[in-house]
Amino acid sequence: MVQNKKAALKTAESLLQIKAIKLQPENPFTWASGWKSPIYCDNRLTLSHPEIRTYLKIQFSQQIEGTYGRPDYIAGVATGAIAMGALVADYMGVPFIYVRDKAKGHGRQNQVEGSFEPGSNVVVIEDLISTGGSSLKAVNALKEAGAEVLGMMAIFTYDFPIAIQNFEEAKIPLHTLSDYHHLLEQTVQSGSISEQDRSLLSEWRTNPSAWGK
After folding, report:
1. HEC secondary structure over the chain
2. Is this model's pTM higher than 0.90 or not?
3. What local confidence, expressed as pLDDT, does residue 107 receive?
């Protein structure tokens, strides 16, 4: 769920500008899942652009505080959201922790890394939401560690119905700086894609597993 339309369009514009999001409806990408996709998103590229990463950091901080108040901790999901999560935590002046995809096989065998007090409330930062599966695994790890997870915020979501369903079933509020709807709106406003390509992009989101086959 996008909270700020102006920020959503600005975020989409920025991601397109630095090619963190690439659109190729006529020459689709193939995801690891085997899905054919007209879009590829790598939000880690935002870290290489100081002006954009600062904008995202401030938007995250303002929207988190406006929604949840000042949390006890910010948690980043490894690996894509560790750096952005740390930037947000620093800007807000709160402690930072991060969550591995699984516990380490050596040492203290942590899955949640950092100094953490059970019973504290946490807002989780993600870079990208597709189906939501890996993101919710991180939420579950935090809960098992004793965290009170207030919600998750991400830079971008494809807004798949399955992701919406997964977060609703987990009872975890999800907010994003931008999403697929606002991305398409931005491309229309800028005239960067044709009407035919926009139609292909719209069709993909409704049934991504079968698109292009």
Report:
1. CECCHHHHHHHHHHHHHCCCEEECCCCCEECCCCCEECEEECHHHHHHCHHHHHHHHHHHHHHHHHHHCCCCEEEEECCCCHHHHHHHHHHHCCCEEEECCCCCCCCCCCCEECCCCCCCEEEEEEEEECCCHHHHHHHHHHHHCCCEEEEEEEEEECCCHHHHHHHHHHCCCEEEEEEHHHHHHHHHHHCCCCHHHHHHHHHHHHCCCCCCC
2. yes
3. 53
Report pLDDT digits (tens) over 165-195.
999 999 999 999 999 999 999 998 888 888 7
CATH of domain 5-206: 3.40.50.2020
Q: Are strands 73-77 and 21-23 parallel, antiparallel or unpaired?
A: unpaired
> What residues are paired with 73 via a beta bridge?
122
Report how far residue 91's alpha carbon sits from residue 157's, in angstroms, rounded to the nearest whole number. 23
DSSP-derived pairing of the beta strands 39-41 and 21-23 = antiparallel
The single residue listed with the structure tokens 């409330």 is 121
Contact 126, 154 (CB under 8 A): yes
